[in-house]
Amino acid sequence: VPTAPAAVAARPCAGPGGAAEAALLRHLCRKVRASGPVTVAEYMREALTNPAQGYYTRRGGIGDSGDFITSPEISQVFGELIGIWYISEWMAMGKPNAFQLVELGPGRGTLTEDVLRVFNQLASVLSKCDVSVHLVEVSPKLSEIQARMLTGGKVQPNPEDEPVYMKGISKTGIPIFWYRDIQDVPPGYSFYLAHEFFDALPIHKFQRTKKGWREVLVDIDPEVPDQLRFVLSPSSTPATENFIQPEETRDHVEVCPEAGVIVQRLACRIEKDGGAALVADYGHDGTKTDTFRGFRNHKPHDVLSAPGTADLTADVDFSYLRKMTQERTTTLGPIKQREFLKNMGIDLRLQVLLQNSRDTATREQLLHSYDMLMNPKKMGDCFNFFALLPHHRLVQADKKDKPELKSPLPPVAGFNELLLK
């Protein structure tokens, strides 16, 4: 019989909420009764993206009224600096005549809007470049919010069986397309953006025991009906065999195979078509152990209670993402958000905004949001930036021909100080 780790006691499932919430719990309990305990990954997938009761499919609570708040919701400066990062990379790579901006899980569309504002302000720089936006979004509710924010509602739905399920034109005149899967995005020179995307993908959890690695599973508590608890698999599972690296030194490990697959796809695309990917997320470089947690109304929420009503998340393991690029691309980072934003010139941008703001309330808001983004105790240290770039962006090929003619490669903004000519 699987045993629950002593540290993880049973947690009550009943909680605030109505019939819809109980429905997902009943569905999960039926699943467990029919075929035994489920993996944490399966539990997360159901809780977040179940078509009827999943957290993202039903609500997607971003912002002050939701369950969590993201950097673009705090300050427009965040997205503007990311927009500048893409333009600086586009220039460093010789100003290709077209690029796609591809965002994975764009939330409300706030970040895309801030990036597009910068593209519009620098329209003279981008004048000869053909720019299009491609959003990968599974939630029908969030894609509606994005469409309203980015196009003012000027969108048309596409036939269901088409890879593009919706398209429109941004307020600044840039075409925008919506997809359910990154594989549907057409090939081509692309800049990818994944902000707080990887942390919501389903993870498997593993515990080292005297008998070797065991997977942590979700089961019904035999003593309390309709209450879930963590248990350990009695023997090793296929995931244990496949996802634990032989050199692993930690005693508890979280692995997100879906993140690995997506990073592999990004690396293949960048290797083949050029471009770059910027990933910003909570995370660590292969050092943390148990980071699986829930948020509801901006407060920590028990991950096993009232599934479907809270945002579930786990820190991104950047060392795993790096490994999964299989050296198809160069990787930079992770570096802390405050270092990245400082390198991108956030201090100068803040000064300009402060000088231009007429009233005290706006100034206070600017300083407060700067503190949220940069303070090591807030988002400054727990958020990281990580980039995938083509090898030739950092290593010059064919130096031997005429090395004296080679100009040095410009540094990568954010990871070094921003130098814009």
UniProtKB/TrEMBL annotation:
Catalysis: reaction(s): L-arginyl-[protein] + 2 S-adenosyl-L-methionine = N(omega),N(omega)'-dimethyl-L-arginyl-[protein] + 2 S-adenosyl-L-homocysteine + 2 H(+)
EC numbers on record: 2.1.1.320
Keyword Thylakoid: no
Alphabetized InterPro entries for the sequence: NDUFAF7, NDUFAF7_sf, SAM-dependent_MTases_sf
Example of a GO cellular component annotation carried by this entry: mitochondrion
Compartment(s): Mitochondrion
GO molecular function: protein-arginine omega-N symmetric methyltransferase activity
Keywords of this entry: Methyltransferase, Mitochondrion, Transferase, Transit peptide
Principal place of residence: mitochondrion
EC main group: transferase
Keyword Oxidoreductase among record annotations: no
One GO BP annotation of this record: methylation
Family, similarity comment: Belongs to the NDUFAF7 family.
Role played: Arginine methyltransferase involved in the assembly or stability of mitochondrial NADH:ubiquinone oxidoreductase complex (complex I). Acts by mediating symmetric dimethylation of 'Arg-118' of NDUFS2 after it assembles into the complex I, stabilizing the early intermediate complex.
Name this protein carries in UniProt: Protein arginine methyltransferase NDUFAF7
